[in-house]
């Protein structure tokens, strides 16, 4: 009894402060209150249900039960209440200091039809859920939100996200802000379930997801156990970096907190992955990572620099269209950039780390503003990247303080896959001026 009280107390006092945390030596606006989402289902009922893409026509359904005997089974079909197909999957669990996770279930279902609503039930018990698969062709819409956390700002962000339809949720790191307090991963899973059970959530890791302990020296035990992504399907050997394709869009999730130098497995995988991309088949390439390579906020200055120096040339030569990052708790949009210069063949860099974390906003920017930075604002919100066709996409950023219909920042994109000038000069740096409103 006393051990159950004293050990977590000692852990909180002595161990947690040693875990990787965000630097906090910069100005932040007060954050929202942390929401602890209660567990109000039976031990055998599924909780924390979320789905992710698994290959071109499959979905992974993930959930947790307190009951260790609950089966890893998903029943599903295209009519509510009628589950014609049954799939059996795998389960795992982990321990972290004095914490033991519930039974974590992962079940692969499919093949599924594109752009179709499916109804499903987990573990042959509990409530019915539903999701819609992404379309196989354009248009397709991605929601992008980093540094989500679990505050009342998080709830506000998710309410705005779900206020308008979309196809896939992309999260460039820092999910639960548990920072070692494992029950906060469970609370986070319950908070996001209404959103994450109805649209695929594809994530990459942030610094708050590391959670190194002596018996978990590589970290990520909770992140990897709860949020497995389709890394094997893209030839990766790590859940910390992978790629996938949705509706003629190639999306690369990079790991800011695993090795990225030129001799690393991640670098070699990225090089091979980019070489496999066929821009006739997937004219758009999006990249997500956590620590931004370009950033004029005073928060987290230079933290993405070594990764940029290692990998930027690979993305540039592949004519990646846009790079989304989190980590800095604010919104910032850059022009097309390569090696710190405006470059019409480089990616647009966007920081979208304003999902609702418990640390608050990063308010201070470097002055004078860099001409590379076209829009910057510390407000909570989310972004939408709507790809209309092979050549054009529309990016919009939505503040939580505004009504759904209000767009705080927007810009049209033209895919670099169609820029003959950029492909003719793929091995050399090309610079020229261009309009702010068409990139
Ligand atoms: Fe972060």
Brief summary:
The chain has 439 residues and is an alpha+beta fold. The protein is 17% helix and 28% strand. It has helices at residues 2-15, 152-162, 183-196, 221-226, 265-276, 305-317, 420-424; strands at 28-29, 47-53, 59-65, 73-77, 85-88, 90-92, 95-96, 99-100, 103-109, 117-122, 129-132, 140-144, 168-172, 201-204, 242-246, 249-253, 284-288, 322-325, 331-338, 341-342, 348-352, 361-362, 373-377, 381-387, 392-399, 409-414.
List keywords for this structure.
8-stranded mixed β-sheet, 439 residues, Immunoglobulin-like, alpha+beta, binds fe (ii) ion, 28% strand, globular, Purple Acid Phosphatase, chain A, domain 2
Structure, explained:
Residues 1-22 form the signal peptide. The structure is a single chain. By secondary structure, the protein is of the alpha+beta class. The protein has two domains: 47-132, Purple acid phosphatase-like, N-terminal (Immunoglobulin-like); 140-424, Metallo-dependent phosphatases (Purple Acid Phosphatase, chain A, domain 2, 4-Layer Sandwich). Helices cover 17% and strands 28% of the residues. The protein contains seven helices and 26 strands. Strands 15, 16, 17, 18, 19, 20, 21 and 23 form an eight-stranded mixed sheet that branches. Strands 14-13-12-24-25-26 form a six-stranded mixed sheet, covered by helices on one side. Strands 2-3-9-6 form a four-stranded antiparallel sheet. β15 and β16 (249-253) form a beta hairpin. The radius of gyration is 21 Å and the shape is globular. Mean pLDDT is 91; it is low at 1-10, 16-25 and 429-438. Fe (ii) ion (FE2) binds at residues 22, 147, 174, 206-208, 290, 327.
